[in-house]
Amino acid sequence: MKYIDEFNDPALARRLLDEIHATVTRPWALMEVCGGQTHSIIRHGIDQLLPEQVELIHGPGCPVCVTPLDVIDKALEIAARPEVIFCSFGDMLRVPGTDRDLFRVKGEGGDVRVVYSPLDALELARKHPDRQVVFFAIGFETTAPANAMAVHQARRLGVDNFSLLVSHVRVPPAMEAIMTAPECRVQGFLAAGHVCSVMGTTEYPELAERHRVPVVVTGFEPLDILEGIRRAVHQLERGEYRVENAYPRAVRERGNPAALRMLEDVFEVTDRNWRGIGRIPASGWRLSEAYRAHDAEIRFDVTGIRTEEPAVCRAGEVLQGLIKPTECEAFGTACTPRTPLGATMVSSEGACAAYHLYRRMTDGPAPKGSRIPQEELNSVG
Amino acid sequence: MCLAVPGKVVSIDHRADPRTGLIDFGGVRKQACLEYLPDVRVGEYVIVHVGFALQRLDEESARASLELFEQLGLLDEEFGDAWEQAARQESGSEAR
Amino acid sequence: MADLAAEAAVDPANWTCPAPLRDQPVVVMGHGGGGALSAELIEQIFAPAYGNPTLAALTDSAVLGLGGARLAFSTDSYVVRPLFFPGGSVGDLAVNGTVNDLAMSGARPAYLSIAFVLEEGVALDVVGRVARAVGAAAEAAGVVIATGDTKVVESGHGDGVYVTTAGVGLVPDGVDIRPQRARPGDAVIVSGPIGLHGVAVMSVREGLEFGVEIVSDTAPLADLVAAMLAVTNDIHVLRDPTRGGLGASLNEIARASGTGVRLRERAIPVPDEVANACGFLGLDPLYVANEGRLVAFVPPPHAEAVLAAMRAHPRGEGAVIIGECVEDHPGMVVVATGLGGTRVVDLPLGEQLPRIC
């Protein structure tokens, strides 16, 4: 068992697909919450193999897409300081702030470094006691334990020149926000498997019950995605709404207790802005009181930076499948992949960017079963 | 959010702070922090994200999932499912 | 390059996750990545300053009429960190890279120039090792280093050793190989497993170890090209997919020729270690650099014979047909996935970065 090849098997994928085709009788709109799942769906062309009735709405689970503009601007401000070594995951270097990105800051002389792990950033801080090392702590519950460990170690070992610029977000409040939106079209969730590896599944039964929405914890390999879809469709066809774990090899109900204890110690829940969606109550983490001394926002006095997102952007509606990207006035004019206004055009897996790319390929509307909201099917369900 | 990959624990350095182990990702090896899996053992598979082992992979569950997928079409053929069959008839060829 | 420039100006929809700011007022690393940013640099700065029809041909080497002969001419600078990596060094790259650029026009490379920019303080032993690598690679490739130059910059103003080579070679009569000649129906052949150079270099930078040693594929390809041309002169396109990998090369060919490219994912030779290292770092093997591979567009009647000739050559033992040139989706590269879906392989923007998302 290698846990990868086995879950890429085309013959088994066919079985799952046949089963989904045989089960579905009506249109259903499912949201895969995690950007990693979106990546896998597009990478393998899974969306094109599904029945027309099954529509996938790409969720907000990509830190690149949802990290708000003012946090990016804070990062740029800090990274440009001469005493700072600014460390980030590779993902964030090209994310545009108001007028530049981290690559540009680097080009202009800022010491910006890509690290693989937050512990690499901590190591840099220990090697360069004369410099301020700042780590850009973005990501969801999956990434939070790693970042928490880095700052925990920094405090324990007295590495005072290490700080975090924190923009952690939590998935369940975002799912709640999506379900409470007035015109919500999401009928079932493929919950983010690796988030659940850390957090467990205990946050979901209440959500499923309250909104009468199936929540299927789903992995990332093609067979995992198909199994998540199969189970969600199965529930929907039967009028059920339960939490199911379709990723049992990596997800336990109680999550990872050691990681949860660390999160409890290092972070506290706070409201957060999501790029393209807006403010979601209790949807983020910030450093708890005990770790405030390692908060880069305070250390570099950038808490005052406030940036408004362009009002014209309707990414929030696109994210929820309420409008087609082309129905947005800015699509293809003010908003292009080159000059993105919102989350869904920022990421190459965002619906707007995907639509832009497919339109180029087909020189017309998106092909059947592509990753585009299929609003034509919206009349039922 | 979740580029996390399965790998096999090759060795554990108990003296490292935090505790680390060498993980084999299909022939590619890299150190990862094992602090969140205090009782993980050499030979077990774990899921690793940004240098941290976040959860151990359960072989029995993995096998059960694969067996379920193997059975899918067969179960239908052999036992059928009255509810699903009814639904299929109702929808005609639409559902392919 | 005019073709690529026009394409990019009309439709700038090339980006990786996340979409970047592309109107940079300063040089960023991505400008050297061989992707869309590199193309824009040429389009916006270089072409207006000194563009001409020869430069606009968008070939790895220019083919020039000179004294009745057809001369292939190419230049390239080599900046790699670390200078020495599993399977080679900057010295090997400097020779093989230029030799291969010439070979991609069908030329037999003959003479190279070499220029060193050395950083003050670099051990002479290091310079000696690079120089010996250059000598050995030149001998293996059958080219003569005909002229050279050396400059020294102050400590902290260079990365140890930068090497620039230029080269010339003769293009045989009847050979016309350039990206514009790709035609629907052409078989797309790659000469062997991809991604080895990029992963070998990255493994050193990212602290990855391998169960099996992964070494760069750096190698001269002129001999292999000669073997292919011995089958037929009618090879449409040759390209060595270096920076930006196979994905960038195929996009450039598709754009230059106004055709589409359709690949079969399962046919693309990606070694397990490369696939796993890429999976681990969140990279796509299609965008990882190669230094000893070529991709060929060959018209159907000759495809099998050319493939056989490649497989009979030590540099092309792993050659396979990975797809074909099509009329559909002109300017785009599309992959049929193992599960039966499709995805678009876009031109990468700049260099790939390890990602978590």
UniProtKB/TrEMBL annotation, chain A:
Q: Which UniProt keywords are given for this protein, alphabetically ordered?
A: Iron, Metal-binding
Q: Which InterPro entries match?
A: Hyd_form_HypD, HypD_1, HypD_2_sf
Record bears the keyword Endoplasmic reticulum: no
The record's comment on protein family reads: Belongs to the HypD family.
**One of the record's GO molecular function terms:** carbon monoxide binding
Q: Which GO terms describe its biological process?
A: protein maturation
Q: Supply the name of the protein.
A: Hydrogenase formation protein HypD
User: Could you tell me the superkingdom of the organism this chain comes from?
Assistant: Bacteria
Automatic annotation (TrEMBL), chain B:
Q: Which organism is it from?
A: Streptomyces alanosinicus
MF term (GO), any: iron ion binding
Which Pfam families would you find in this protein's record?
A: HupF_HypC
Tree of life domain = Bacteria
The record's section on SUPFAM superfamilies has: HupF/HypC-like
The record's family statement is:
Belongs to the HupF/HypC family.
Q: Known InterPro entries for this protein? A: Hydgase_assmbl_chp_CS, Hydrogenase_HupF/HypC
Gene field: hypC
- List the protein's name: Hydrogenase assembly protein HypC
Q: Name one GO biological process term.
A: protein maturation
Q: Which PROSITE patterns match?
A: HUPF_HYPC
TrEMBL record, chain C:
From its record, what is one biological process in GO terms?
A: protein maturation
Domain of life of the source: Bacteria
Q: Which family does it belong to?
A: Belongs to the HypE family.
Every copy of the PurM-like N-terminal domain together lies at 60-171
| Stored Pfam families | AIRS, AIRS_C
Xref: CDD domains: HypE
Instruction: List residues of the PurM-like C-terminal domain.
Output: 183-329
Q: PANTHER family this protein is in?
A: CARBAMOYL DEHYDRATASE HYPE (PTHR30303:SF0), HYDROGENASE ISOENZYMES FORMATION PROTEIN HYPE (PTHR30303)
What protein is this chain from?
Hydrogenase expression/formation protein HypE
The cross-references to InterPro entries, in alphabetical order and at most eight, read: HypE, PurM-like_C_dom, PurM-like_C_sf, PurM-like_N, PurM-like_N_sf
